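Course assignment 3, question 2. Fill in each field.
Student: A.L.
Task: Predict the tertiary structure for the chain below.
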Amino acid sequence: KTAIRDAATVIVVRKCAAGPKVLMGQRGATAAFMPNKYVFPGGAVDPVDAVIDLTLAPATCALLGENSDLSPQAIAAAAIRELWEETGLILGSKGTWNIDPTEDWKAYAKTGHVPDASALQFVFRAVTPPGRPRRFDARFFMIDADALTGDIDDFSGASDELSHLQWIALKDVREFDLPFITEVVLAEISGRSADAAPPESVPMFLNTEEESLFLRLRGYAQDG
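Answer field:
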């Protein structure tokens, strides 16, 4: 039985005169998980992410915390770290770290920035179906490209995990080889502004050994 790892994914939306674009890259042909597919930047939550001090909106914390053993801050930190590692783009603000950054965060810290999660909008959660070589409980965040620091066309600091990093017009994105769940997420967020207020509820696509369920996380609403 494949263990399910917590993960975070970032959908970066760029406003353009001809219509919005999203940042995607292609996974390698030999990748164990989703080879050759075009995906958003993202990856597994690491233990080091739990020590990053982030401020999140209370509604976002409630939604991220529902049916989760992880701290909302750790999930958001993983999103920022994975975006940095896979694209070289910085979501953060100029500042000095009040802790010694762990190995995974040292390169980010050297840029002179501290992570800033205020632009992250939690919009979707999905659990990989059984039978796959790897399974993730992935939280999808949406951000406006304006929230990024520096040149958003400069991917020189990216790792080699994703190739062909590019801004793809939202109207053209389905012409690429996408995972099924990516198509579901794109349909869910179409028409939603990346700088809107946090949603009152977030859809969750839950795949178990017995069934596939389309649920809604409601955060505070569950106590109401």
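Instructor remarks: The first strand starts at residue 4 and ends at 14. The chain is about 20% helix and 30% strand.
Grade: pending
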